[in-house]
């Protein structure tokens, strides 16, 4: 059985349509690797997934090709926020001999997303042949995507930390709530303890006034620099917005349902700063990201 599956994967890897099947179109002018950015938080309920999807849409509005990967293991939150579902995850590449064109779903404004489900978790147990097949398939996006956003689960589990440590850049989402601030610092502490080197950026969500957001930034940047020797940059604030709740109930992203709302404008500003501001000198791309994940789990 395992021999048959391995042989099937070898044949698929050699097949000319193994990658290009579906609606993915190569961008001829794209020569650099994708910027792989992990979006994470110390605790749940801070608006991380909604932020990730709306950031992807804001980047798409800036003419960027964006792929979102749902790495919240066992969940399917990305599809819920977008109001669309997909029957496949990364695991189907192996179990059902699907191609990347089969499992990638089209989102609004040209963004694409991959459901995580349990597929990301099974990266821990892949054979070398299986790993290389997945890497070959998903590496195609380095020729297409300007940004690949990894939406992790909340908390400090080993799975979450692996996704954080493997990324080119990391965005930490928090809110002004004391527990959220404490948990965001805990994430930074674990990151520093594992010799994380990727640029770490902070977004304070659900603020009611600028002074509130700045207080959170000052507190976290000061303690992280003093006790962890870890520089953390402020990427921006997102104001509390009742329209976000409405958008969630509508299963339509905020930037589509309420594009002129205050939270939408905040996220658009963050996307602009992310695009124009400091980035890694040489993004490693999704291939290296996956190889790191695999090595962390061995």
Walk me through this protein's architecture:
By secondary structure, this protein is α/β, with parallel strands linked by helices. It has one domain: P-loop containing nucleotide triphosphate hydrolases (Rossmann fold, 3-Layer(aba) Sandwich). The radius of gyration is 19 Å and the shape is globular. The two termini are about 25 Å apart. About 5% of the residues have low confidence.
Question: Quick gist of this model?
Answer:
By secondary structure, the protein is of the alpha/beta class. It has one domain: P-loop containing nucleotide triphosphate hydrolases (Rossmann fold), CATH 3.40.50.
Q: What is the topological layout?
A:
Elements: H1 2-14, E1 35-41, H2 48-61, E2 66-71, H3 77-82, H4 92-95, H5 100-103, E3 105-106, E4 112-114, H6 128-138, E5 147-152, H7 158-166, E6 169-174, H8 178-193, E7 200-207, H9 210-228, E8 233-239, H10 242-250, H11 254-257, H12 262-276, H13 285-297
Parallel strand pairs: 1-5, 1-6, 2-4, 2-5, 6-7, 7-8
Antiparallel strand pairs: 3-4
Question: What is the number of domains?
Answer: 1
DSSP strand content: 15-25%
Under CATH, the topology can be stated as: Rossmann fold
Radius of gyration: 19 Å
- Give the N-to-C terminal Cα separation: 24 Å
Q: Which strand order spans the largest sheet, edge to edge or round the barrel?
A: 3-4-2-5-1-6-7-8
Helix and strand element order: HEHEHHHEEHEHEHEHEHHHH
Write down how many β-strands occur, each being a DSSP E stretch of 2 or more residues: 8
Assign the CATH superfamily: P-loop containing nucleotide triphosphate hydrolases
Roughly what is the average pLDDT, rounded to an integer? Answer: 84
User: Assembly type of the shown chains?
Assistant: single chain
CATH architecture: 3-Layer(aba) Sandwich
Spans with pLDDT under 50 lasting ≥5 residues?
12-23
How is the main sheet built?
8 strands, mixed
| Structural category | alpha/beta
Amount of helix: 40-55%
